[in-house]
Specification:
Layout (H helix, E strand, L loop, with lengths): L1 H8 L14 E5 L3 H14 L2 E5 L2 H10 L4 E5 L1 E2 L2 E2 H10 L6 E6 L4 H8 L3 E4 L5 H11 L21 H16 L7 H15 L2 H15 L5 H15 L6
Parallel strand pairs: 1-2, 1-3, 3-6, 6-7
Antiparallel strand pairs: 4-5
Helix pairs in contact: 2-7, 4-5, 7-8, 7-10, 8-9, 9-10
Organism: Celeribacter baekdonensis B30
Keywords: Phosphoprotein
GO biological process, one term: phosphorelay signal transduction system
Length: 239
């Protein structure tokens, strides 16, 4: 019995098929759909995963334990993920790998300036590309030795998680104070739509963001988004 317990608690070594075995990953991501994609990528790679959906939640996690890898979405409901990247890059003891993540490729410079070791552009569905990104950023002393399998496997998150994201936005649109969240809503929907391959929603989200940035009327953009969101929630009601 003691031998069995010791084997369970012993550090696990990477294998060619699971090159991230033994690593713990904290994913800081507010989208349930994007989080589900990261969960599948981590589990298929052998890594343990925890999730935080905001800066506040991530900081609570980090006060309790220190992961090997932190993947931070740049757009979070309570601030920019660059803030957390900057904090982590100066923390002692630090984490082995800090990765910024966004659906906006232009955010890579922001993540790098904040101290990230690398950047993941959403959507990412390739298991091999994810593993290579993490492995390439690991310090030499902690990087697995030997060969690992280069896989072309693609992962596909559960669509229920995508509907959860749309329900979340529908709630924000109908609650008091929703007006103050419009920039966040546009950013959130843009990222979710890009991850899901929803070009219609992505275009609508970009239009809202552009019109607000330019100080132009955006009522029609908001009405369009509300209709698109509702249309994507409606199938959920079918029994």
């Amino acid at each position: 019995m003691t031998d069995d317990l010791e084997s369970l608690l012993a550090p696990q070594s990477p294998t060619p098929e699971r090159p991230l075995l033994g690593l713990t990953v904290l994913v800081v991501e507010d989208s349930r759909f994007a989080s589900e994609a990261m969960r599948l990528l981590c589990l298929r790679s052998g890594a343990r995963i925890r999730r935080a959906d905001s800066l506040q939640s991530a900081r609570k996690h980090l006060r309790v334990y220190r992961p090997n890898v932190v993947i931070v979405d740049l757009g979070l409901p309570d601030g920019s993920g660059a803030e957390l990247i900057d904090e982590l890059s100066h923390a002692r003891p630090g984490v082995d790998v800090i990765l910024g993540m966004s659906g906006d490729s232009g955010a890579e410079a922001l993540a790098s300036a904040a101290g990230a070791n690398g950047f993941i552009e959403k959507p990412i569905s390739s298991l091999g590309a994810f593993q290579e990104k993490v492995l390439s950023c690991l310090p030499t002393g902690t990087r697995p030795t030997g060969l690992h399998v280069i896989t072309d496997e693609e992962i596909w998150p559960d669509k229920i998680a995508l509907q959860d994201d749309f329900v979340h936005i529908a709630d924000l649109l109908t609650t008091d104070g929703g007006e103050d969240m419009l920039d966040y809503i546009a950013q959130f929907l843009s990222g979710v739509a890009r991850t899901a391959g929803d070009a219609e929603m992505e275009t609508a989200a970009h239009s809202l963001a552009d019109h607000r940035e330019q100080g132009l009327p955006y009522g029609s953009d908001l009405a369009r988004i509300a209709g698109l969101v509702q249309a994507r929630i409606e199938p959920r009601k079918v029994v």
